[in-house]
Amino acid sequence: MKTDRLRAINTPRRVEVELGLAGLPVMVESRAVESVCEIWRIDDEWWRDPIHRRYVEAILEGGKHVVLFAELTTGEWWVQKP
Amino acid sequence: MTRTPHLASDTAACCWIPLFALRSELARRPELASHPVALVAPDTARTPRVWQVAPLARRAGVKPGMTVSQAIGLCPALKLCEPDPVHYDEQFARLVTALVTVSPVVEPVELGRAYVGTDGLQEIYGGPERIVEEMQLRIVDCGLRIGSSSIESAIRNPQSEIRVGWGKGKFVSWVAATRARPGHAVIVPSGEEGKFLASQPLAVLPLDPDTHRRLRQLGVKTLGALVALPEEAVVSQFGRAGRRLWRLAAGLVSEPVVGRVVPEPIVAALTFFTPVGERDLLAHALDKLVDRALADPRRSGWRVQAVRVHAELEHGASWLVAATLKDPSATRERIAAPLKTQLERSPPAGAVERLVVEFTAFAPGTAELQLFARDASAAARAGRRRALQSAAREIALRIRRPMLYHVIEVQPWSRLPERRYALIDFEP
Could B418 and A9 be called an inter-chain contact, meaning their C-beta atoms sit closer than 8 Å? Predict the structure, then answer.
């Protein structure tokens, strides 16, 4: 029997960010954040592994479009594609 | 795949484990054995009802068929277990596999009950007592975990839950099994069926409640009392069903055990990287799995007669539905339709981690016709598809592992971007 496993794509990657005065990222792995498009928060799946994240959709220096989020329980920042 | 031959036997051994599902559950959760326990029915997600009830709970008044709230009202200490039909099925499959090593003629009836045809086995094992002993030994060896203690020896072991009856035909062997004490066997010698059945209560007959009530009102409480009435009188009261009941009670009906060669099922499975609860997504996954199973080369030339879907749920529970098609089919829509209906009617009780589709029975079909392309664009599409399939096979041969994937939508509405899409192996 062949079992197919779904493979996740666009999995987040841990990054080092520098935060500005407003608590928003201004540098992501030595690339400056040129603009912040949107900010939102997700609190979900409290019945399983709770997810508490603050998302920031941003354009980096050079035009790269990314989604950053901070895990509110650990303070770590992660990046992925939109 | 070959046509399924029929194997039959006049003499039968009935192997019966009452409350099989509940006992399977207690075997893997022995801490529940000292509590009043009941199992919730697997197909009643909307209004949960009690299915199998342990003796402690029965004494408190809990009965099968009650709603959960009624049961808890009667027995506040009642512990309810979510059903795991896949586990019970696997346990029962172990039992049937063990019985098949004794005789090739095995007819499973329901969870916990199977008939074994014993014609011709006297030459190998000896008389009925030796055949039954051999069955019990094979069951011990098969690793079946049942009841509140592990089975060290099923032979004359009061801890064993297995009861065996032997006699001519399925009905006599079944009645004999119900009379056997746990761990023991009752053997009805040939020619003594009438004498054995005479003292049995009316409840052993396959009666509807109305017929049972009417017979009791007539003062008929045993099969002997029924047989004492003239057959034609019973027929005039109860019609054709009455004739069958009279002849069963008299030991004149001997239904042979019919075993079949079970074809190897065709299976397609999918593991979700995050548990899925949405029914639309499950229905979509069902379609994909049915397509994949239909594409199996072993299915070529056969139509699907019976299909089963089982799911592993979060927190260890499971879900199982099966459908037998009135007309065997090889099209996805016809095969998936009854499964989707059952998915709507009795959805899984939790989020699904893994979904499995099995084609378990087949009927001969016409050879698949290659439809001629009606126009040039259809021909071009077919040509591109063939080229892609050829390239995929070439890659698989050279690199020896899958390197081509589809991107599929999983939860495109999800607020978490990593859950929206996923990769799945490309099947040429």
Answer: yes
Nearest neighbour of B269 by CB, restricted to A1, A10, A51: A1
Residue with more model confidence, B242 or B44: B242
Residue B267 contacts A, CB cutoff 8 Å: yes
pLDDT (tens digit per residue) in B320-339: 999 988 888 888 999 999 99
Quick one: pLDDT at residue A77? 95
The answer to whether the Cβ–Cβ distance between B417 and A10 falls below 8 Å is yes
Residue contacts between A and B (CB atoms, under 8 Å): 60
Domain count, chain B: 3
For A41, the enclosing helix (H) or strand (E) is: strand A31-44
Query: How buried is B301 (Cβ within 10 angstroms: 0-12 exposed, 13-18 middle, 19+ buried)?
Result: middle
Long-range CB pairs of B412-416, under 8 A, 24+ apart, other chains included: B415/A42, B415/A44, B416/A42, B416/A44, B416/A51
> What residues of chain B lie within 8 A of the CB of A67, using their CB?
417
Q: Are residues B142 and B276 in the same domain?
A: no
Answer yes or no: do B203 and B277 share one domain: no
CB spacing of A7 vs B422 below 8 angstroms: yes
Confidence (pLDDT) at B2: 45
Please report whether residue A6 resides in a domain.
no
Q: Are the beta carbons of B270 and A6 separated by less than 8 Å? A: yes
Considering the domain architecture, whether residues B287 and B403 belong to the same structural domain is answered as: no
User: Is A7 a member of any domain?
Assistant: no
Domain that holds residue B365: 266-369
pLDDT tens, position by position, B272-316: 888 888 888 999 999 999 999 988 877 777 888 899 999 999 888
- Decide if B74 touches A, using CB distance below 8 A: no
Does the structure show a pLDDT above 80 at B169? yes
Q: What is the ipTM of this complex?
A: 0.84
Reported as a single tens digit per residue, the pLDDT across A51-79 is: 999 999 999 988 889 999 999 999 999 99
Q: How many domains does chain A have?
A: 1
